[in-house]
Amino acid sequence: MLDLSQDDLLPAITAWANLESTVESAVLFGSRARDPKDFAPADAVSDVDLHIIATDPERIESIDWSMALPGRSLGLRVVRPASGGVRKITLVFASGAIDMVVVPSARLRLAQITMRVGLHRRLRNLSYPLNELATIMSYGYRFLKGERRWGRFYARVVAEMPGARISDLEAWNLADVFLCDLLWVLQRIDRGELIATQRVLHLSLAETNFRLLHELRVRQGLATYREARRAERLLPGAELSLVQVSARLEAAELHRAAWQAFDGVVTIMHGLVPGWKVPAEMHRLLGAKA
C-alpha cells in the first residue's frame, strides 16, 4: 500500500534537477505549486508535477532512478506521450509519484525566438505547444531551477497565450460528432452490444461533454480543469449532472445514460454556441430510438 506522504519527494527531485547538467530548467506546476488557499490545493495524493527543459531528453529517459534518488523504493517508471508533442516520465515510488514533462531545450529556444518576432500565433506547430504550456502553467508554477534563463519566457507565455481552447467551429463539430455517436450507441443497445455501448458512452459522449463544459466555464471565468479533474468539488449539482455517467451493464441503464448525455450536450451548447441545434432529420432518427 502506498504511503501517501510525499514530503520527501519534492526536495529530493529538486536536488537531482540542480545537479543534473542536462536539465536547464525545472518548474513545479499543478496543485503542489498553488497557494494552499486556492480553489484546488494539494492534498495527500497530489503528484509532484514538473516541467523539465533538457538539452538531452533521451538521457533523462534512461536515468537509473534508484541511483539518482537513492533510498526510495521505485515501483514503476513509465515514459509516454504528453500534450504539446513531447514526452512525460512518470515515477511511482512507495512515497508517491512524480510526473515530469520533458521538453527539448532546442524546441523552446525556437519558440522563444518566434515569440520575439511575433510569429508564434501564426504557426500552429508552435502555437499549439505554447498554448498547452500556458494552460498547465496558468494555475500556478514555481521555478526549482533555471528561472534566470527561462523565467521571462514562461511569464510571457502565460500572459499572452490564450491556452488550449475550443473555437465555436470546433465546438459545433464536436457536438455534431456527438450526435453521430449517440445514434450509434442507441443502435448498439438495440443489438445487445452493451460493452461496446459502454465504451463509446465514456470515450465519446461523456468526453465530449467534459471538453465542452470546460470550455464554457473558461469563457465564463469560472474555475475548471481539463479531463474533468476535481469536477466533484468545482461543479454545482446542475452542471455535474450534465457530465456524469452512471450506468451498469444493462440496456435500460445504458439507454438512460445515453439520453442524459444528450441532454447535457444540448444544454452546454446552448450556453457555448447558441446557434447550434440538432438537425431536423437527425432529431427524427434519434427520436425513433427514444
Task: Describe the protein's architecture and organization.
With 290 residues, this protein is α+β, with helices and mostly antiparallel strands. It is built from twelve helices and six strands. It folds into two domains: 9-160, Beta Polymerase, domain 2 (2-Layer Sandwich); 168-287, Four Helix Bundle (Hemerythrin (Met), subunit A), CATH 1.20.120.330. It has helices at 9-19, 57-61, 65-68, 105-117, 124-137, 147-160, 168-191, 194-219, 231-234, 237-243, 251-272, 280-287, and strands spanning 23-29, 48-54, 74-82, 86-93, 96-104, 141-145. Strands 3-4-5-2-1-6 form a six-stranded mixed beta sheet. The longest helix has 26 residues, at 194-219. The radius of gyration is 22 Å and the shape is globular. The relative contact order is 0.10. Mean pLDDT is 91; it is low at 1-6.
Largest sheet: 6 strands, mixed
* CATH class membership of the largest domain: Alpha Beta
Question: Can you count the beta strands?
Answer: 6
The N- and C-terminal alpha carbons lie at a distance of 46 Å
CATH topology of the largest domain: Beta Polymerase, domain 2
Share of helical residues: 40-55%
What percent strand? 15-25%
Mean pLDDT: 91
What structural class do the secondary elements suggest? alpha+beta
Count of DSSP-assigned helices: 12
Shape: globular
Question: Which architecture of the largest domain would the CATH scheme give at its second level?
Answer: 2-Layer Sandwich
The low-confidence parts are: 1-6
Whole-number radius of gyration?
A: 22 Å
